[in-house]
Amino acid sequence: MAKQKTIFSCQQCGFQSPKWLGRCPDCQQWNTLVEEQPLVSGGHARQQATAAKPQRLAEIDSCEEDRISSGLSEFDRTLGGGVVPGSLILVGGDPGIGKSTLLLQAVDRLAQAGKVLYVTAEESTRQVKLRGARLGVSADQLFLLAETSLEQIKLRIKELKPDFLVIDSIQTIFTNSLESAPGSVSQVRDCAGQLMLQAKGENLPTFLVGHVTKDGSIAGPRVLEHMVDTVLYFEGDPGHPYRILRAVKNRFGSTNEIGVFEMQEQGLREVSNPSELFLAERPEKSAGSVVVPALEGSRPILVELQALVSSSSFGTPQRTAIGIDHKRLALLIAILEKKVELALAGQDIFLNVAGGVRLDEPAVDLGVIAVLASSHLNRVIEPQTVLFGEVGLTGEVRAVSQPELRVKEAARLGFNRCVLPQGSLKNLEAPQGMQLIGINHAGEALDAIFI
């Protein structure tokens, strides 16, 4: 009898090898190759795709897809305006961050527009019911199904004919056509592929919940993120009640939009004005604190930067950054030492973005330099002053995008002085009561901000 062939698949990236390897040569992860049975051709029937015909570009209907509001404005903002019929949406995040809570609250409102089938593959229906009672979920058109078999799920979809589908989670669903365990690369890839065909073929909006690995990426093959239309990450610091829903891929909208929520006992509460929330506990007239207007998509958000600079007791000073890339911090420290002539070589430096927010845009460079100088010199920055601007390697301050949105948000919250790049002052009208100070070099900013 011929020996049955097996393959070894990496559970992180999907790499396949005819023999076991301790380290995956593709993603360089250790002990991730698992033995699986190869898929036999014709082993299971796939949905037959309809034959498509070439069409002229000018003859294709270009009307905008009708979006369905989820009832959560922050959720709709991240999706690009609402749920698109037939879309496949993947929601990932750390365990316990609130993915199931977010979707349960969203489908409670979506159930007013049609039937919702919520497939809970990790919990019993009674557990979901208890959570729903705590969140106040009581929609009549919300149906729960505790099932892990994809074949059974598709059968119930055919019987119920729902308008929305939620799979929680994709890593626990399996198909009988494969012998590998649930959560393996082949199972996740094949189940997601069949759900994608069903979503597109029946115009059924589908939400998939995805687990994340220890490095923060969604577990399973990378092709999973390529299959879906939208990838959302639910982020948050366990020590803070704030949660941020961020789109890293969106075929129907911008990937720069974010939604802000606050976790409470009754569930997630939308934060329509995150600037006031992040600045609520800001200490005034204290060295090492400054406010910067960051931009997340089309939304300006004012956040507080805090810095602590102190003499180091060791030969190698510490450099710690929370919420900002540590390499960017090292670059700005070097600019302060070389171009502004502040002696920071023997200092421990700690930088934090208050509220658990993560800032990636270069417009916060000027704020970082200002707050480091404030803590080092023990001088207080004017409390009603905001700063933004990109700092180059020679210390010059460069213009950034959409300065008018940043200035208007600062003026709305009561700030009366704004230090910004001279290049951003072109065609910029100052709001009433706001003083705009244009600068060309980082050293000029320090002269303008200290009390």
Short description:
By secondary structure, the protein is of the alpha/beta class. The protein has helices at residues 73-79, 99-110, 125-135, 150-160, 185-202, 223-227, 274-278, 326-339, 365-377, 403-412, 442-449; strands at residues 7-10, 16-17, 33-36, 88-93, 116-120, 142-145, 164-168, 206-210, 230-235, 242-250, 258-264, 267-270, 289-296, 299-311, 319-322, 347-353, 385-387, 390-391, 397-398, 417-421, 435-439. The protein has a nine-stranded mixed sheet, with helices on both faces. The protein has a four-stranded mixed sheet with strand order 13-14-16-15. A three-stranded antiparallel sheet has the order 2-1-3, with no helix packed on it.
Write up this protein.
- The chain has 451 residues and is of the alpha/beta class.
- It has 3 domains: 1-37; 68-272, Rossmann fold (3-Layer(aba) Sandwich), CATH 3.40.50.300; 277-449, Ribosomal Protein S5, domain 2 (2-Layer Sandwich).
- Helix content is 25%, strand content 24%.
- The chain has 11 helices and 21 strands.
- The chain has helices spanning 73-79, 99-110, 125-135, 150-160, 185-202, 223-227, 274-278, 326-339, 365-377, 403-412, 442-449; strands at 7-10, 16-17, 33-36, 88-93, 116-120, 142-145, 164-168, 206-210, 230-235, 242-250, 258-264, 267-270, 289-296, 299-311, 319-322, 347-353, 385-387, 390-391, 397-398, 417-421, 435-439.
- It has a 9-stranded mixed β-sheet, with helices on both faces. A 4-stranded mixed β-sheet has the order 13-14-16-15. A 3-stranded antiparallel β-sheet has the order 2-1-3, with no helix packed on it.
- Helix 9 packs across helix 11.
- The protein is globular and about 70 Å long.
- The termini are far apart.
